[in-house]
Design goal:
Elements lengths: L1 E4 L14 E4 L2 E7 L2 E2 L4 E2 L4 H18 L7 E8 L5 H9 L9 E6 L9 E8 L1
Parallel strand pairs: 6-7
Antiparallel strand pairs: 1-2, 2-3, 3-8, 4-5, 6-8
Helix pairs in contact: 1-2
Length: about 130
């Protein structure tokens, strides 16, 4: 059985998908981009600001599901320019304990929704 996870503290979906799905003890979070849920505007001043907004959107969804970043077991990071990797990784690393950080991949792609620079999805377990 699946449960839809939805919070106003993260951006509303812009297509036929949900912010996250809880199935049993597994949470599957859709890719998050740097939309500020309060203003519905993109946060793209700097790659650091953009990545922080993405991580905060993930955090809001995790909280809605009764979880936090310690529950995350896998992330996928999609970036439009691998030259931004160091700064994205620096911000990303602030949200995880290095000893218990999740598995992940980071992939450079040609384009992302709304032509953002970074999108991150996650899988978590209770």
């Amino acid at each position: 059985m699946k449960k839809i996870i939805k919070t106003s503290n993260a951006p509303a979906p812009i297509g036929p998908y949900n912010q996250a799905i809880l199935s049993g003890n597994m949470l599957y979070i859709s890719g998050q981009i740097a939309i500020n849920p309060k203003t519905n505007e993109l946060v793209t001043r700097t790659i650091i600001d953009e990545t922080k907004q993405v991580m905060e959107n993930l955090n809001a969804i995790l909280k809605e599901a009764g979880m936090d970043f310690e529950n995350v077991i896998k992330t996928s990071i999609f970036i439009s320019d691998m030259n931004n990797f160091t700064q994205i990784n620096e911000v990303y690393g602030q949200y995880f304990d290095q000893e218990t950080a999740p598995a992940r991949e980071t992939v450079e792609v040609a384009n992302l929704p709304k032509f953002v620079n970074v999108e991150i999805s996650a899988i978590a377990v209770k």
